[in-house]
Amino acid sequence: MSGQLSARPVPMAASSRWSLLVARLDRSAGAVFILPAVLVILIFSIFPLVASLYVSLTRLSFSEGGIHLTFVGLGNYAKLVVGIDRTHFIGVTVPLTPLTAAVLFVVYGGFAFLLVRYLRGPGRTVLGFVGRLVTAVIGGALVWLVVDTVMTSGRPGTLVVTLIYVGVDVSVQYLLALGLALLVVQRLPGRRFFRVVFLLPMMITPVGVAYLFRMLTDTSKGPFYPLWAHFGLTDVSWVTNPWGARLAVMIGDVWQWTPFIFIVLLASIESLPVELNEAAVVDGANRWQMFWAITFPQILPATSTVVLIRLIEAFKIVDLPNVLTNGGPGTATESLTLHAYTIWRALDIGGSAAVAYMLLIVVTFVGISYVNLFRRRVTAMA
Amino acid sequence: MAATRARRHRSYAINRPSPAVTIVSYALLVAWAVVVLFPLYWLAVTSLKTPLDVNGGPFYFPFRDFKPTLESWRYIFVDLGEDTFRPYLNTVVVGLTSTTITLLLGSMAAYGLVRMHYRVRFAAIASFVAGLVAAVAVIAAGGPWQLALLGGFALFLLLLQTVARRFKRALGNDDIAFWMISQRMLPPVAVVIPIYIFFQQLSLLDTWAALIISYVAAHLPIVVWLMRDYFQSVPLELEESAAIDGASRYRIFRSIVLPLAVPGLVATFLFVLVFAWNEYLIALFLTSANAQTLPLTVAAQNATRGPQWWYMSVLIMIMITPVIAMAIALERFIARGLLVGAVKG
Lengths: 382, 345
Description:
The structure holds two protein chains of two kinds.
Chain A: E1 2-3, H1 17-27, H2 29-56, E2 58-63, E3 66-71, H3 75-81, H4 86-89, E4 91-92, H5 98-120, H6 126-150, E5 155-156, H7 158-185, H8 191-203, H9 206-216, H10 225-230, H11 242-270, H12 275-282, H13 287-315, H14 319-325, H15 336-345, H16 349-381
Antiparallel strand pairs in A: 2-3, 4-5
Chain B: H1 2-15, H2 19-46, H3 51-55, H4 71-79, H5 82-115, E1 116-117, E2 120-121, H6 122-140, H7 145-161, E3 170-171, H8 173-182, H9 188-201, H10 208-232, H11 236-244, H12 249-260, H13 262-278, H14 281-286, H15 294-300, E4 302-303, E5 306-307, H16 309-330
Antiparallel strand pairs in B: 2-3, 4-5
């Protein structure tokens, strides 16, 4: 471990024992800075990781003298992918229709084009190509799953529903947050009021937000009753419609977590040096040009970080679907974490751990692809 | 100081929008403010209603549509009394302590990852995994866990000092950072039982310590990732000149880097605090009567007769008040101009 700064402090009085100690401590600064965090994370991550992997390979049963774990190998995973829980986890898939075939053709064509462009471009490596190929194959499979269960008469399972939540939530939250952050960095009177107000939803406990939205979406007692009455919807609870229920969950999530991205982008924009903008004004650039040429490239690193964090957190959405719709109608709004939670309440601990591990695999895949394809490029540019 | 003020005036001029832009901006800001505030308004009104008013349909304005009552507030503060205040104290202590520790450890690690080069050799990781597998095998075979962990650790050190020295391939800073954030990928449902067993073995269940330690571990990766970006924007020239003047790494970190990263520190502090303040599932498992936190009290208002919205509204409101106060107090630090004028040329 060595520092980037080449200059080393010169001990003033090298003879004194104290300054020797200081010098030694300074040489090992690299370790001192990072080790506490690494140790804490290591201790608290390895045990749950190993323990739940082990549990996911077993089945829990109650026998005389307490609980008993039976080793079942990959049985819990097989149940999810090909067994009796397939419709719950993956959904109901149907043969290709002309529509889905057309969509898949376009998407896969896009993947192939990007791969070929990478092979033709400079800086190609074997590892880079293999990584992109794996990403394209797994990503392609996930796209097929989403298209095949959503755009046809099929039914999406918890995996697909979670992917929909993550995709819609994170992109909507990002666009909203960026727009709001740009609005409040302007020197408008009263901007501090808006800054604090926009943070409020994040501060409510997620369970509380879920109950709050259950109250708001109630068709007979909620504040939007006149609206439902106008459309004659008061008797049919609108969360009985799968897409209506999913929409309610997504609105709640966007409402709560837009502030998170907002505050990170705001702090990032506020810490940019003003000199570049001043130079641009002197050169006669308009606001639009200044944003795309100056501000946006400079906040890309912060953007890539906050989107990654939100991606990971969004995959774990559980309170809203649990409280708002209880996963229903059927399992239409059930996310993967809620799936793990419900079968965990039914004491199928092994199956629950298997769902959790499936989620871990999907998030890891998305995270690694995201970091390698997007974030590396962004941070290299900055 | 005068130069700084002059620069602030320049930035003020740049960011002052034209009248048309001002009107559009205000329209958009007010629109989103309504979206944000309306649910909170509904919360406030609900806390003033009787159960009958809540279930009778939508009543919008106190005094006009219904007669407001402080009955729910009385119930939470007087009838529940101690059962409200103890969780409140727990939430404050656990939230502030864990956030402070997380921010300290996380910023240090983030600074290390930004300004130093780390190399973690594959062979070292492999040795660690080997030691871990050995320990797990012993525990699975029924051995005592203290001995198994010691043995595994010894095996790890042994391999590290012998075989592992021969292999040079290594992971860098970005890989360490990704490893850290990947710790948040396992859903909490899978984590709670192992964590429960962990603290049970240390007989720390239902204490502040258990919650504080869990929250520090859970939120460290987020702090590391966010602070990395903010430290990156601190000019290297400042640190170099301080190093030439004989300042130690720790002194540079404390006196130069941290003060310049205040906007990021404040933003990060705010939402790590919010996360710890509002965490539900871990608290549900690790605490019972003594160390219970407020999110559990909120969820407990969902009784067999259905959710008691009126009590919930009161609880949510007293829960967010201190956090809002803190956000108002700290918001001024998330402002442009702290870095301005620090570097010449």
